[in-house]
Amino acid sequence: MSQLIQYETRGRVAILTLNRPEKLNALNYATIDNLMEHLDLIEKDDAVGAVILTGAGERAFCAGGDIYEFSESIKSGVDVAVREFCKRGQTMTDRLECFPKPMIAAVNGLAYGGGCEITEAVHLAVASDRAMFAKPEINIGIPPTFGGTQRLPRLAGRKRALELLLTGQAFSPQRAYELGLINKIVPQDQLMSSAFELADQVLQHSSLAAARIIGAVTRGVNTTIGEGLNIEREQFARMAATQDVHEGLQAWIERRKPVYQGC
């Protein structure tokens, strides 16, 4: 695969790095496609239990979509722009949101537009104290196209989301924390170690249980409470038939640390 996405593993954690630092890690079509290819491989790799997604360089996590590229799609017509740009970006953020292994963003700098939408979509996020966020699409005459008009109101509330969407103003990591976009703010030099610490805390538990929780939350958050409870029961039933449940219960009874097999 190309180096638009750098890939490495440390123990059970995969690290995916958006690697266009000269373009502030803007998401051109090839980068999105390459990211999706890596996610397909990681999902099948039983040795990987969690994923950290970050950006190359000191300036940006991701500055959003590649304006030069998608402007050419817009010139080609509405159908082309929707297919090449909007649908591709929405498919990416949906994949991140529904990914069955915990997905952690390590936001190391600017997270504008599509970069902010990635942060909204992933399961957990740690941000550097140098990070900055924005929903600037209105400045170029478009609404967000990678899910930002839907996920941000669900995270932050309608009026607070609309303020950011309609003004395009940048906001601090502290504001992002208050709005529920990120879980933690840390000094820049502690960003990756904090993301790994969070991953390690998650990886102490059953990977199957983590997948069931992610599935229940992701599917249930946009339904009624009754439908959500049905989803929760379904995910519990799937989990109750696994060996991990028996091991977890027996370990608790015996006051020892469980050894999960992922089956």
How would you explain this protein's 3D organization?
The chain has two domains: 5-203, 2-enoyl-CoA Hydratase, Chain A, domain 1, CATH 3.90.226.10; 207-253. It contains eleven helices and nine strands. α1 (29-44) links the parallel β2 and β3 (50-55). The strands form two sheets. The protein has a six-stranded mixed sheet with strand order 1-2-3-5-7-9, sandwiched between helices. α1 (29-44) packs parallel to α3 and α3 packs parallel to α4 (114-121). By secondary structure, it is α/β, with parallel strands linked by helices. It is globular.
Q: Judging from the principal axes of the Cα atoms, what is the shape?
A: globular
Category by helix and strand content? alpha/beta
CATH superfamily of the largest domain: 2-enoyl-CoA Hydratase, Chain A, domain 1
> On the 0-100 scale, what is the average pLDDT?
96
* Helix coverage percent: 40-55%
Q: Please indicate the percent range of residues in DSSP E strands (runs of 2 or more).
A: 15-25%
CATH topology of the largest domain: 2-enoyl-CoA Hydratase, Chain A, domain 1
| Main sheet properties | 6 strands, mixed
Rg, please? 19 Å
CATH class bucket of the largest domain: Alpha Beta
Number of strands: 9
| SS field, number of helical segments | 11
Helix and strand pattern: EEHEEHHEEHEEHHHEHHHH
Total individual domains: 2
Q: Any low-confidence stretches, pLDDT <50, length ≥5?
A: none
End-to-end C-alpha gap: 31 Å
Based on the structure given, which CATH architecture of the largest domain is correct? Alpha-Beta Complex
**Strand line-up in the sheet with most strands:** 1-2-3-5-7-9
